[in-house]
DNA sequence: CTATAACCGAGACGGTACGTCGCGTCTTCGG
DNA sequence: CCGAAGACGCGACGTACCGTCTCGGTTATAG
């Protein structure tokens, strides 16, 4: 589960004084839920702060006390979805990759995920703070899947160990970009389904490449 | 050069009558140029129709006579950029792929391309007409690169011929998603540069995979 | 019948050259009729030149070739209504005045007359050319009724002859302002009907005053 | 002083809840002042909501929160001018009437009054709500002058008492229409000045008529 | 048990951009 | 040269959200 990064959970602001009425925790969760619901119902561009506040049964002020703008709110609201991804051990590298590809595709099939993800990424091209938030809240968290899968494959003897830690990191980044990029492109740009057959083809291509490189 | 798909160039609307003052062609090109300039200067979210009109020296109504909204306008304005991509014969499949990867990355480094592309893709998740427009104006046009590269590699003997035309099409789609997806993800989501080294690593991975699959 | 003062009937423009296609006379009458119809249907503020052109089956250009703007067009369209007023000899000054009061009130009950009259008068407070046009096309034309009525009353011996021509003119102006003003105010501002009873009361007041003054 | 009839002062809407930030009273007065200033500077037809807002140092939305359209705003802005009219006791009916005629003419000489008054009256011919607003905000308030002047004249013995209250009301309405109508017509339609001489002539005519009728 | 302080809802505020409408002008083709 | 058709630059419209700012009122801890 993600520890949501709201203003009030930041160390420097949470303890600005122990007196006064504390912030409502129900409000936090209600707002994030309302944001996801609004994304499903309206999409990114039609989503308004006022509407989210209404859906959450909360005043607009309460939103702005916690998030500085729409983008930050949406990142937090969507980030939690990506933590559902897991990497159960299916016994082989191929099966593991195929599993995560299908899981990721299923996630991107949810409207609140796909519309929000692309929109905040688009926005982040002009907003460094937002890009950093996306990386820490979403991207970097999922690299664990790559690292875990590689470690497992190495333990099985499917992939060789890499001695140079920098090379290992670069390799992991590359794999991550290939997997995430291909699935996102397939789903959002090509707008074709990621079914069993496509996942199988893609996985074969990737794992074959990895095997050839490693040898 | 792209044949821009404005309202008035659509076959079904261009002949609403040959009478009356014809639409200004200079306005068309001025608007598209102004749109690209505004994207560079302001980015997607700060771009306004009024500002584009001012930059183009044109009335706002003239924009709305041609494009129904910001998204369609931006797609048309940006589409032409993607037609600059070429596939010069560098003598080998690896060199060809690496070349197109670097070209594509260079394109995505241009601010008007990256911010606009992601934004319209995000919007297209809720707008079928927009998605179709993106596909026809941008995506499908670039698949030619994959087809051309494969044909060349087959002629060189680097890749086997595929008899089943459907399988060949699926394969081309897959390669397209992998290349485009990985580069986009690297540049926009991971926000890391696509330099010579990364291009080399990625190309090796991909071509190795293709070679293993074909055999 | 009013000789409409359009651009093309002005001596300096009608003969700008005897060559070329002559202006359509049907267009003139169709435009004025369409203007009155639009006034009835839409009122002054909702009336648009484009709508008038459409109703008249004419291009907007054709309107502007004849009238410089909305106000001038409306004045001409409405002026003709006021020429319907007549002063049949009813045998006495009181009966004559009462007759003209009722006639004028009936005219003001027509929506195209009342809404247009007030609107152009309002506009004329800032537009001298328009005020002059209103005076010549509408106001001055109706003063004939006062002059005719007075002459008749003098012939009957109901009113004394006035020797000083300037005093006579002032007196006629005053009577005109009182009659027209009272009826207009009753109908448009007070928004009460001008019925037989009111016309009788008003006429008595006015004629009594005239009689007292004259003696 | 006029109790301005804005949306928020209407009994049925002022209590839509005592919560939330209350409306700014300074904004109200600033808007009405700005409206009068804009009427003087621009006249009715050139007056725009945006300009009034700018002059008042207020957002356009603040105007629309209080008045649904230009007409209602202008009625409220102008209504207060008419409350300046008074009827000081000048010792005789003739002097009183002459005084009020000159006062009224002076008021109509002010550009914000004359252009606005005619325009809203013109508009009111198609808008019942507006006509009612004009009557309650402007017209009915001034009938007090007639009633007061008559009472004074009766006290002096210049006019007989009227036993039938309905006849008295009708008579007051008639006098009001005659005075207001004649002055308005003289100033706005005939566009001639209401000077001492005209006021004297008109007053003599009216008072003579009243005297003849009463006897 | 009260004072203080931060919270909460509601909603008005100054702004910015929207997409539309009408104006009066212009440019084309055809009669 | 006129007339229809309709695109053009312009400017105002009335609306929708933005993010901020009062309000009155609530809920905690501190004294």
Overall number of structural domains of chain A? 2
What letter string, H or E per element, gives the SSE order of chain A? HHHHHHHHHH
Q: Please outline the major beta sheet of chain A.
A: none
Helix share bin of chain A: over 70%
Mean pLDDT of chain A: 90
The first-to-last residue Cα distance of chain A is: 38 Å
Q: In percent, how much strand structure appears in the residues of chain A? A: under 5%
Task: Name the poorly predicted regions of chain A.
Answer: 1-5, 8-15
CATH superfamily of the largest domain in chain A: Tetracycline Repressor, domain 2
Shape of chain A: elongated
The largest interface is: A-B, 51 and 52 residues
Instruction: Enter the CATH topology name of the largest domain in chain A.
Output: Tetracycline Repressor, domain 2
- Please count the beta strands of chain A (DSSP E, at least 2 residues each): 0
Q: What would you call the structural class of chain A?
A: mainly alpha
Based on CA atoms alone, the radius of gyration of chain A comes out at 20 Å
* Number of helical stretches of at least 4 residues of chain A: 10
User: Tell me, what is the CATH class of the largest domain in chain A?
Assistant: Mainly Alpha
What is the oligomer described by this structure? homotetramer
CATH architecture of the largest domain in chain A: Orthogonal Bundle
Organism (chains A, B, C, D): Streptomyces maoxianensis
Protein name (chains A, B, C, D): TetR/AcrR family transcriptional regulator
Keywords (chains A, B, C, D): DNA-binding, Transcription, Transcription regulation
InterPro entries (chains A, B, C, D): Homeodomain-like_sf, HTH-type_TetR-like_transc_reg, HTH_TetR, Tet_transcr_reg_TetR-rel_C_sf, TetR_C
């Amino acid at each position: 589960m993600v520890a949501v990064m709201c203003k009030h959970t930041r160390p420097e602001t949470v303890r600005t004084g122990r007196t006064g009425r504390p912030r409502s925790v129900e409000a936090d969760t209600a707002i994030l839920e309302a944001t996801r619901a609004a994304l499903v119902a309206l999409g990114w561009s039609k989503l308004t702060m006022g509407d989210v506040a209404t859906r959450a049964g909360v005043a607009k002020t309460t939103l702005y006390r916690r998030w500085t703008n729409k983008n930050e709110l949406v990142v937090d609201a969507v980030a939690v979805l990506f933590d559902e991804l897991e990497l159960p051990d299916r016994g082989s590298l191929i099966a593991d990759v195929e599993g995560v590809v299908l899981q990721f595709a299923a996630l991107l099939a949810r409207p609140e995920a796909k519309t929000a993800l692309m929109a905040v990424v688009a926005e982040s091209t002009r907003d460094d703070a937002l890009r950093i938030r996306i990386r820490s809240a979403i991207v970097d968290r999922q690299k664990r899947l790559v690292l875990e899968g590689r470690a497992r494959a190495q333990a099985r003897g499917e992939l060789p160990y890499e001695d140079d830690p920098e090379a290992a990191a670069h390799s992991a980044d590359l794999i991550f970009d290939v997997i995430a990029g291909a699935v996102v492109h397939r789903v959002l740009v090509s707008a074709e389904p990621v079914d069993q057959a496509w996942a199988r083809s893609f996985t074969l291509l990737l794992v074959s490449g990895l095997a050839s490189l490693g040898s």
